[in-house]
Amino acid sequence: MPNSKIGGNNMSKAVTDATFASETDEGLVLVDFWATWCGPCRMQAPILDQLAASHDEDELKIVKMDVDENPETPAQFGVMSIPTLLLKKDGEVVDKVIGVHTKDQLEQLIASHL
């Protein structure tokens, strides 16, 4: 069966309070803070999947963190509403956006930090 994925081999990965630092301290990483009950988060998810499909993981890594199951990290980064997307480059926060964003908006955000 042919691979239907277009672009990269990137997939969003779930991270926890315990794994956050090790998963986000190298390269360019987009962190999606979300929750299962969050409607806008469910709207953002397929957009992030499209973004992941169009970038190789060595260029952009996308991780997701459930804020209900992992309260420490969102508190550390001042996440007050979701979805919140945090962009880290080599362990440093370089951007933070709140709310649902289009793929084009996110591509522009990422391009400014490549």
From TrEMBL:
Keywords of the record: Disulfide bond, Electron transport, Redox-active center, Transport
Domain Thioredoxin: 1-114
One GO MF term: protein-disulfide reductase activity
The name this protein goes by in its record: Thioredoxin
Keyword Cell membrane on entry: no
GO biological process: cell redox homeostasis
PROSITE patterns cross-referenced by the UniProt entry: THIOREDOXIN_1, THIOREDOXIN_2
Active site per UniProt: C38, C41
Family as reported in the entry's similarity comment: Belongs to the thioredoxin family.
Species, as recorded: Enterococcus canintestini
Site entry: Contributes to redox potential value: G39, P40
CC per GO annotation: cytosol
Pfam families associated with the record: Thioredoxin (PF00085)
Site feature Deprotonates C-terminal active site Cys, where: D32
Disulfide-bonded cysteines: C38-C41
Domain of life: Bacteria
